[in-house]
What we know:
The structure is a homodimer.
Chain A: H1 31-39, E1 50-53, H2 57-63, E2 72-75, H3 81-95, E3 100-103, E4 109-110, H4 113-129, E5 133-138, E6 149-157, E7 160-167, H5 172-181, E8 184-194, H6 195-205, H7 207-214, H8 225-232, H9 241-246, E9 252-257, E10 261-262, H10 267-273, E11 282-284, E12 287-291, E13 297-299, E14 305-309, E15 314-318, E16 322-327, H11 334-345
Parallel strand pairs in A: 1-2, 5-9, 11-13, 12-14, 13-15
Antiparallel strand pairs in A: 3-8, 4-10, 5-8, 6-7, 6-8, 7-9, 15-16
Helix pairs in contact in A: 3-6, 3-7, 6-7
Amino acid sequence: MCGGIGSRFWPYSRTDKPKQFIDFFGTGRSLLQMTYDRMVRLVPADHILVVTNERYEQLVKEQLPDVKPENILSEPDRRNTAPCIAWAAYHIGALDPEASIIVTPSDHLIMREAAFEECVERGFDFIDSHDALLTIGITPTRPETGYGYIQIGDEVSPGFMKVKTFTEKPDLELARVFVDTGEFFWNAGIFLWKVDTIKRALAKYLPDLDGIFCSGADKFGTSCEKEFIDCTFPSAPSISIDFGVMEKADNVYVECADLGWSDLGTWSSLYEISPKNIAGNVTQKCNVMAYDSSGNIFMAPDGKLVVVSGLKDFIVADAGDVLLICPKGEEQRIRQMVNEVNQRFDDKFM
Amino acid sequence: MCGGIGSRFWPYSRTDKPKQFIDFFGTGRSLLQMTYDRMVRLVPADHILVVTNERYEQLVKEQLPDVKPENILSEPDRRNTAPCIAWAAYHIGALDPEASIIVTPSDHLIMREAAFEECVERGFDFIDSHDALLTIGITPTRPETGYGYIQIGDEVSPGFMKVKTFTEKPDLELARVFVDTGEFFWNAGIFLWKVDTIKRALAKYLPDLDGIFCSGADKFGTSCEKEFIDCTFPSAPSISIDFGVMEKADNVYVECADLGWSDLGTWSSLYEISPKNIAGNVTQKCNVMAYDSSGNIFMAPDGKLVVVSGLKDFIVADAGDVLLICPKGEEQRIRQMVNEVNQRFDDKFM
């Protein structure tokens, strides 16, 4: 899944080059490329599909030259994750009705790759033998209020639990309780299922959405597929797979693992997972000389020198044409700022 | 006088283009050019001399194409103001021993130009009739701790007072007393004198320095002048005219005026004299959207968007390859930071 716009990472994440296409860590690989690198060890290269927005098709081709053009599914419109997943399920189903699918965001970080591989392999085994919608639960390492949590129920097989509830993002007090009980895991938005299982769930819980794809069932995998999608996709309800299916279905299971995972949803989450210097500052790419400054994250163009004094717990993100300076604790306001910048300058800084 | 390096305005003021060459206000004219514009209304254009460092000779020529090359005195070394002023006095004396001279920094701001013109014209009249070293005292508008003060003595002619003392930069408490008494004025570093008066003062109070120039008296105004300067100037003592002459001489007078003057010596002084928006923020050139932010000064490349939240009383100076974020109250540390940057990156960001 590669169609998001990542507005919380503005001004680095921009409409014409969102977060998943950015090399956040200066390693030479974008988050999308890192996701591809991770998946190609688990799945044959020509079985990897990228569902993205039309406007990013060219970027995907540039960043993932090994992905064949026919494996890039370009959405004509942004409709959240359920239509994206439905399309992929119908497309894959047309190629192989028995296929197992893993669905993953392209803009998350997983640092423990070996653990991830083992987890996914075990997950594929599980869905081979269970009619399951399987999600990956991440062992929480802190009372994070920015994530949804999964409460686990009975263990049905070693390491696999029935999901009791999905929760919205909790407040800090509740998040602490969640972590202390040991019953709650972060919802990573990574799913495994068989084609048949997800199609039945879509038909049951999102019949309107499923109806659209079902009506073109003979077109998937053919030269008519794209035209069909262009005509019908924009009328699909905009809804997430979590809200539309996972929270409603009764065959939802979770495999819990400690993967060094972060959704990199916010500057603070990037701060959390990044190595810090002795003053607790995180530096991405740029040179920083910090005086009386701690708990900050600095990001600036390659080679730029940032000299700061007296700054505590701030995000300093210099994207060349835009400089953002914002307390880490206020970053939920970045979305609002982006909206106001958009109103005032049209698309100039988007 | 145009040879300074303006390190307190780093990262805008740089070794290869110091403060006086910068268009701080986005008006299309640098501080040097604004100084020229001010002087050319008072002095015939071909009587204006620019004393600068060799390395800035080309910049001066570019910014002041109307100044003839022979009117640019290029110092081979930085030796503070006394040698600069001595050279100019000997140079002018060779052309016209009866000349009156006004000496002015090229990196200050004067906003009340009509008052300045009137002040200078009255000053020239005064030194025509008095054997005086005349300095301009600025009516203080606040208890500024960054300036030297002049204490006035007896009035010798309307508007002209004997100088009682020059003071070093006071602490805040003392500065408040200074302002309250009405006896203290800011030392603007603008001087008026006759050639003969300053030469006698140099001979009396800085005999070593004067001896150097005196030894080449026949060379000034000839084709041998520059070679003589290149040989001897570097051996001149590095000393300011204030410390070397003005604080010691007994024929020092002051003309006090309210000129809308600022030495623009610091970011804070730029903040003080600049128009502020309702939140008390000053914006130079760039677009700024400020949330919960007040008392800041923002400077960034033309057209750059700066979005800030939760910043109080800071300098934010983005010079393209360097970003400085520093509390206004800490800016005396900028010099130290510049030194450390210099040590760490050689001349790269100087």
